[in-house]
Specification:
The complex is a heterodimer of chains A (264) and B (321). With 264 residues, chain A is of the alpha/beta class. Chain A has a single domain, classed as Thiamin diphosphate (ThDP)-binding fold, Pyr/PP domains (Rossmann fold), CATH 3.40.50.970. In chain A, 30% of the residues lie in helices and 14% in strands. In chain A, strands 3-2-4-5-7-6 form a six-stranded parallel β-sheet, sandwiched between helices. Chain A starts with a strand and ends in a 12-residue tail after the last helix. Chain B has a single domain, classed as Thiamin diphosphate (ThDP)-binding fold, Pyr/PP domains (Rossmann fold), CATH 3.40.50.970. In chain B, helix 9 links the parallel strand 6 and strand 7. In chain B, helix 1 crosses helix 2, helix 1 runs antiparallel to helix 11 and helix 5 runs parallel beside helix 6. Chain B is globular and about 50 Å long. The N and C termini of chain B lie far apart (58 Å). Classes of the chains: A alpha/beta (264), B alpha/beta (321).
Chain lengths: 264, 321
């Protein structure tokens, strides 16, 4: 069975399911609790989960992004929102130097299982400091997994797998998509080879597909009006490709294991 | 006597071993045996040893680049310590971190940031985890007077104060940000302690060359934090004996002043004089301690130098995205 909901509601469902499942998941950012987020993504969360798990911050992007890194290193799973991806310029160090490099620079002693959600993109006449598309900036830094859901089904599936991933994931959400209504499955689902993100991209390396293919009933592919994305560039290394539209699903599932040289 | 002999012997052991490690690092660097660079903390051990003597199991630590020997006191063994310093696979990060990034997560050390002050939020985040799990622990955030001029420090202090998180902010004020004196860049006499009131935090200022005075102040502040009252600030005043990095000739400051600090404010020498006077240790015991630890260090250095280094093929191991 499928249902038709907006991109932001689908995102909300994904966050909600993960917060119910795991009490270590919490939300932190500007206007996330009382207001329920400027795009309505966390409406009602404060009442349901309380102020310890849905945290309104002061305007201190560098401060709370750093806090998310520290909390993630010590066992919690923060989902942070930068109200606009443009604000990464004032919170660059915690993400690019702390979150991205901690697992590598500690020899695998620590992982940083955090998600950074970033509404992004132009078209709402928000002017130059609230409209940029900075995916290339995020993709430059080794150690960040970057996803960019482009339909409601991916919004829910990818945010769920991003939260369960043991490494920092940056989710770039185009603001014009939030109000768009689309079909998503009724029941819980995961990004698989049948997910839209995968169908549009080139097939991932088969060794990464460890889930049974039929997690949900097969149904004909949804009609898509958008042109297909270009095929991903193949990296010569065995690491996942770094092009943002293709890397995400491949890197997201199954959750990556610890590297062989990690001590714990 | 205010303290038990056992406590005094332990704090002296930690102080002396930190001193000997710092001196050894200078020697190794001078002999060209250390890749990268070394920021020596000789003469500044008391601040760290005094504060860390208040630690409890389960606490977290954000250390700085000086002195870099503190992970030894916190439980990283010497083979691993020198392995990381010499960029060998036996180091805590397999040689990927190097001299600035020694320290095991297992011991509560949360790593160090090469970008000063930017990881203050990380210490506050670790305190959020402590708060979430309702543990009686403290997240110790160390910084220097130079770092106290960074914006993220104050974002993090504001967040910690607003949510009453268990963080002890420690400023080791040695008077210099590389070559720039604090007096020309910081408008208050105490770089961090004088600013604590703006966040509603209590603060203490201690003599950073007297390990027992540091311990007294740190105990008071850490007990306050540990009891769940929120964050606090401790500032310790000392002096940077050597250059910012080994090789820095310190042409920017008065050598006479440095000489005075080295001769009259030596935390190890002063503590040992007091302990000898009180009869807590003897000259023979002190000599035996120095010789014994020197042998331990030499053994660990030999192990580290014989250990394999990371090869070019392995450089991408552990890179996941």
């Amino acid at each position: 069975m499928s249902k038709k909901i907006t991109f932001s509601k689908a995102l909300r469902e994904g966050l909600h399911e993960e917060m119910v499942r795991d009490e270590n998941v919490f939300i932190i950012g500007e206007d996330m609790a009382v207001m329920g987020n400027v795009f309505g993504v966390t409406t009602g969360f404060l009442d349901e989960f309380g102020p310890n798990r849905v945290i309104d911050t002061p305007i201190s992007e560098e401060g709370f992004c750093g806090m998310a890194v520290g909390a993630a290193m010590r066992g919690l799973r923060p989902v942070v929102e930068l109200m606009y991806n443009d604000f990464i310029t004032v919170a660059a160090d915690p993400i690019f130097n702390q979150a991205a490099k901690t697992r590598y620079m500690t020899g695998g002693q620590a992982t940083v299982p955090m998600v950074l959600r970033c509404p992004m993109g132009a078209g709402r006449r928000n002017a130059g400091h609230h409209s940029q598309s900075l995916e290339a900036l995020f993709c430059h830094f080794p150690g960040l997994k970057v996803i960019a859901p482009s339909c409601a089904e991916d919004a829910k599936g990818l945010i769920k797998s991003a939260i369960r991933d043991d490494d920092p994931v940056v989710s770039l959400e185009n603001k014009l998509l939030y109000a768009k209504k689309e079909e998503i499955p009724e029941e819980e689902y995961w990004p698989t080879s049948a997910s839209p993100a995968r169908r549009w991209a080139a097939p991932p390396p088969p060794r990464r597909l460890r889930l049974p293919k039929l997690l949900r009933p097969r149904r004909p592919p949804l009609p898509r009006r958008r042109p297909p994305c270009p095929p991903p560039r193949q990296s010569p290394r065995t690491a996942p490709p770094s092009s943002w539209w293709a890397a995400a699903p491949a890197a997201m599932w199954p959750p990556s294991g610890r590297p062989s040289w990690a001590r714990r | 006597m205010q303290y038990e002999a056992r406590f005094l012997r332990q704090i002296h052991k930690d102080l002396l071993e930190t001193r000997l490690l710092e001196e050894k690092l200078c020697d190794l660097y001078a002999q060209g045996r250390v890749p990268g660079h070394v920021h020596s903390g000789v003469g500044q051990e008391a601040t760290y040893v005094g504060v860390l003597s208040t630690r409890q199991p389960g606490d977290y630590f954000k250390l700085t680049h000086r002195p870099i020997s503190m992970p030894w006191m916190l439980g990283t063994d010497l083979d691993m310590f020198f392995g990381e310093l010499l960029a060998k696979k036996t180091g805590n990060s397999g040689g990927r971190g190097g001299s600035l990034h020694i320290g095991e997560l297992r011991t509560g050390v949360l790593g160090m940031s090469g970008t000063l002050g930017c990881d203050t939020g990380v210490a506050v985040g670790a305190a959020l985890t402590i708060d979430y799990e309702q543990r009686p622990n403290v997240s110790y955030m160390f910084m220097g007077d130079g770092t106290s001029s960074r914006g993220p420090v104050y974002e993090a202090m504001n967040l910690a104060a607003a949510w009453k998180l268990p963080v002890l902010f420690i400023c080791e004020n040695n008077g210099f940000a590389i070559s720039t004196p604090a007096s020309s860049t910081i408008p208050v006499p105490n770089a961090l302690a004088d600013r604590a009131a703006g966040y509603g935090m209590p603060s203490e200022v201690a003599d950073g060359t007297d390990v027992l005075d540091v311990y007294r102040a740190a105990k008071k502040m850490s007990d306050y934090v540990r009891a769940g009252n929120g964050p606090a600030v401790l500032e310790c005043k000392d002096y940077r004996w050597r250059g910012h990095f080994e090789g820095d000739q310190c042409a920017y400051r008065d050598a006479e002043v440095t000489k005075d600090w080295v001769e009259n404010h030596d935390c190890v020498k002063n503590l040992e004089a007091m302990l000898l006077k009180e009869g807590v240790v003897t000259e023979a015991e002190l000599a035996a301690m120095r010789a014994g630890f020197d042998e331990q260090m030499e053994t660990a250095i030999a192990h580290a130098e014989a250990a394999p280094a990371m090869t070019a093929e392995e450089i991408f191991d552990g890179l996941y995205a």
